[in-house]
Here is the input.
Amino acid sequence: MDPAVVDAEDFRQNIITYALLPGATPINYPIKRTSNIIGVEGEMSIEDPSVGCAIATVTIRFEINGWTDTPPEVKTGVEWLQPQGHATFKECADWHRYPNGKLCWTRPDCWKTVCKDSSSPGWIERAAVVLARDVSFLLRCHLTASRLGIKKWPKEWDAWPHGRL
Here is the structure.
């Protein structure tokens, strides 16, 4: 079997372990373009480290396609994603989400750095942990903003700017 396929399946299993609550559903998509896309959908617990417990649970989907070069797609349709009712990327960019529920949870160059040392033991597990941590952080920011009525991404919150690097 192709090592890339084995790695992608191993990555999916690590996402299930580190990002999702029990009961996740693996998804195998039909061939799109020239590569297979695999994914997983399930419930993710959004933790607040300051209180040490879950503050929300969301249904989320991870799509894996050439994942060492391109960050996995992450989608959720939770109603509290900010800004409400915005329909264009320009209106949503500061919130690191697209109108279709896709999250901009990392930059491609940062993700390539996470995946660059594929010869070291545990690299796939580390990549899944980074994915879970970064997605959880972004969702926690959205939930906090929704609960507090924040309409503009606060400068104090860590975030990569959109547009040119």
The radius of gyration is 16 Å. Residues 123-148 form the longest helix (26 residues).
